[in-house]
Amino acid sequence: MILVDGMPAGAVRATDRGLAYGDGVFRTLPLAEGRSRHWRRHHAKLAADCAALGLACPPESLLLDELRLACADATGEQVAKIIVTRGDGPRGYAYAQDAVPTRIVSASPRVAYPADYAERGVRVMKCRLTLGDQPALAGIKHLNRLENVLARAEWNDPSIAEGLLCDAGGRVIGGTMTNVFIATGGELATPALTRCGVAGVTRERVLDGARSAGVPCAVRDIGWGEVLSADEVILTNSLAGAWPVREIGERAFEAGPLARSIQRWLSSDDEETA
Amino acid sequence: MILVDGMPAGAVRATDRGLAYGDGVFRTLPLAEGRSRHWRRHHAKLAADCAALGLACPPESLLLDELRLACADATGEQVAKIIVTRGDGPRGYAYAQDAVPTRIVSASPRVAYPADYAERGVRVMKCRLTLGDQPALAGIKHLNRLENVLARAEWNDPSIAEGLLCDAGGRVIGGTMTNVFIATGGELATPALTRCGVAGVTRERVLDGARSAGVPCAVRDIGWGEVLSADEVILTNSLAGAWPVREIGERAFEAGPLARSIQRWLSSDDEETA
Questions:
Q1: C-alpha of B76 from chain center
Q2: Helix H segments across chain B?
Q3: CB–CB of A21 and B145 under 8 A?
């Protein structure tokens, strides 16, 4: 079901700034029985992303009510999507300080990825598109996602699960829909997302897991060469959990001990569900 | 009136990829009695932008019919907006090759800018935000416009008509909603838009006007220093026509002969209207 500003609607005004300019942010998260295992992190990230764009974030209790309502008639696991836009507005880039955000809360059945992806690992490719630097938007899960769309259109081989993207300087940033970690000599590293990329909630959970486990995990620039020479490469997002990479082009990898550690951290860091 | 896929609707599906990812393109153009003076250029640019994103561009005759319908009940000059998105789709960046685009055609009354803007010129500021380089999207009037939104939010002084943007290398690219020309020693120049920026139809008309008039107009990288030391700075778009700049921060300019030439070219390059 899709709720727009709390009403089962399925449609938004054609003059919404989310459509006109991609002026908004979003979240994608798994729900079980209408509840999110990591809601607090998702809401905190939504609030931070809204704040970065000067958007008023909808109250947490309202979103929780709407998430439950959106999957009230559903059976089985669901994927929720929350979009918050700047709301309706006249033509022109300027927005009113009192603009009323539009919120879109939807749920749809969760289609499980092949179990193989988490167990044996995934094949990935390096995308030709390079991500543009924009520090003012880096890390934010905003609605300007044409780079992701163009990158994802670079392959249609269903045996390739993800494409990895670098910036123009040849530093790896992440996948089209995942964050990336590399493991080298027992230590982890993940790209600093200060110029581009999306800083996901699962990335944050892995960073916390590494901290708790006493595994060093650097957040820094990582050149493409380091990816190819790493012992392990691991992709993460809220729906995938953690996928070991088993192939990037010619280079084969094994699903190694740090992929398994990350998977263990992610399966055991339950918060009180909301 | 707003037509969505030809129907007076005012709303689009909440699952439209234009909203989800900014996966689409748009045009803004003035209409007089339901007709556009430069329709051929606008349609050609719309078609080129669609092609750049792998979108099917709606047929010209359909759009013309819908433009007339959108302002059928209106009196006075109108501003039309055409949005073409990738259409409805499931979650995920991948799109189907046979995705059916959504087209949104709307018209609203044209609010004239102060006559002073074209006569005496406008005050502009330099925005702090720098535009990110993305050659794959440069020049295209796509729906990923958060940079423009953030830049426009840098001022609310109504006496400032526009903000100018540079790239991270300090090269001027254009205004939040305009293209820019500089005049130096009787010659014109406008930024090359190969890494960022939007290549507008009016910019193209000025380039053609300069060619016809035998005025040199280079399309090249232009440093910010060159803007401040230029004899004239001129801003253009489809609704504004050409505005001389009379002030950028501390630097004052006069509306000079090349601003007047550009205005003359733009007032006399009528195509057969469509």
A1: 22
A2: 17-21, 39-53, 60-70, 115-119, 146-152, 201-213, 224-228, 257-268
A3: yes
ipTM: 0.96
Q: Report pTM.
A: 0.97
A19–B146: do the CB atoms touch at under 8 Å? no
Alpha carbon of B16 to those of A39, B19, B89: distances in Å? 26, 6, 6
- Count helices and strands in chain B by DSSP H and E runs: 8, 15
| Percent residues over pLDDT 70 in chain B | 99
| Residue B12 touches partner A, C-beta closer than 8 Å | yes
CB pairs A-B closer than 8 Å: 173
* Contacts with B7 (C-beta within 8 Å, 6 or more apart), sequence order: none
Q: Which residues of B touch A129 (CB under 8 A)?
A: 136
- A contacts of B153 (beta carbons < 8 Å): 54, 94-95
- CA torsion sign, A145 to B39 to B220 to B165? negative
Rounded Cα gap, residues A141 and A42, in angstroms? 11
Taking only residues 24 to 53 of chain A, the set having a beta carbon closer than 8 angstroms to any beta carbon of chain B reads 26, 28, 53
Q: Find the helix packing angle between A201-213 and A257-268, rounded to 10°.
A: 110
Q: Which of A79, A12, A23 is nearest to A49 (CA)?
A: A23
3-state secondary structure of B184: strand
> Can you tell me the distance from the alpha carbon of A265 to that of A252, in angstroms, rounded to the nearest whole number?
25
Q: What is the pLDDT of residues B18-49, one digit of tens each?
A: 999 999 999 999 998 888 889 999 999 999 99
- Asked if B173 reaches chain A (Cβ–Cβ under 8 Å), the answer is no
Q: Are A162 and A178 within 8 A, CB to CB?
A: yes
Q: For residue range A197-228, what is the model confidence (pLDDT) as tens digits?
A: 999 999 999 999 999 999 999 999 999 999 99
Tell me: the pLDDT tens digits for A64-86? 999 999 998 888 899 999 999 99
Count other Cβ atoms within 10 Å, centred on residue A265: 20
What SS3 state is found at A56? coil
Q: Measured between CB atoms, does B108 come within 8 Å of chain A? A: yes
Q: Radius of gyration (Cα) for chain A, nearest Å?
A: 19
Q: Name which of B116, B117, B139, B267 is nearest B206 in CA terms.
A: B267
